[in-house]
TrEMBL record:
Stated name of the protein: Sec-independent protein translocase protein TatC
Naturally occurring in which organism (per UniProt): Aeromicrobium ginsengisoli
Gene Ontology CC entries for this record: TAT protein transport complex
Membrane topology, as annotated: Multi-pass membrane protein
Keyword Transmembrane included in the entry's annotation: yes
Length: 261
């Protein structure tokens, strides 16, 4: 296909993706009340024990001018639209890239996509379940006699950032397996780096989690560690299969002999 043909194909797929996002945003605008109640639930669950124990009123407030309510609803509707339409615009991206890949590369692309989506969704679900505990810990630092009035927009950004951190962290096995398939790391190297990798995972979890309590950090670090160990096992199986297919090849971290014999 000539360059102009590629540009036309790109334009067509961009138009389809944008239209899908617009339709998803309209749907998000319609289901806004239900979506808002769903996002607000971790906040309600997180502050309920504090309301009973400390006796202060904690509310979500909408700061800004007259149009702040409209802009907030539009932002939430757009976020919902991006999620709802993600199968369409992701497929449009893949549809533009796949013709340039070989058959083996296409198979791995489909496999990684099919594995990455459930992992990301699982990480988002864990992040959503952790939110009440994180909010409870953060609000507990407020003085006894002070009412907590949180910005609704800040709360939405907090929720999105938290679930995205958990969702991206769940993709660790894909990254490790992909590096192993490309020959950049071997199972032996992963095993040697395991202690430092686990320490790095816990440091990342301590920095990335929204609250300062160790329980929330463990909710992120423990699944990441398990997923890393699973990816290490997959890398070991892949290396064994590769060694059987090419027994004369040396491993990447194996010292070759100086003699030609």
């Amino acid at each position: 296909m000539p360059l102009v043909g590629h540009l036309r194909e790109l334009r067509r797929r961009l138009v389809i993706g944008v239209l899908a996002i617009v339709v998803g945003t309209i749907v998000g605008w319609i289901i806004y009340p239900q979506a808002f109640d769903f996002l607000k639930q971790p906040y309600v669950d997180g502050i309920k024990p504090l309301l009973e124990r400390k006796g202060f009123q904690a509310d979500l407030v909408l700061n800004g001018g007259v149009g702040s309510a409209f802009s907030f609803r539009l932002k939430l509707a757009l976020s919902i639209g991006l999620v709802i339409s993600s199968p369409v615009w992701i497929w449009q991206i893949w549809g533009f890239i796949l013709p340039a890949l070989h058959r083996n590369e296409k198979r791995w692309a489909f496999l990684l996509t099919a594995t990455g989506a459930p992992l990301f969704a699982g990480g988002v679900a864990v992040g959503y379940l952790v939110l009440p505990k994180g909010i409870q810990v953060l609000i507990s630092f407020a003085p006894e006699s002070v009412d907590v009035l949180l910005s609704l927009e800040d709360y939405l950004n907090f929720v999105i950032r938290t679930v995205l951190v958990f969702g991206v962290a769940a993709e660790i096995p894909l990254v490790v397996v992909m590096l192993n398939r490309l020959g950049l790391v071997s199972a032996r190297q992963l095993a040697r780096a395991r202690p430092w990798t686990i320490i790095g995972i816990f440091i990342f979890a301590a920095v990335a989690t929204p609250s300062t309590d160790p329980l929330t950090m463990l909710f992120l670090a423990a699944p990441m560690t398990v997923l890393y160990l699973i990816s290490e096992v997959i890398a070991k199986l892949t290396d064994r299969k590769r060694a059987k297919a090419a027994p004369d090849e040396l491993a990447d971290d194996q010292v070759s002999s100086l003699d030609e014999d």
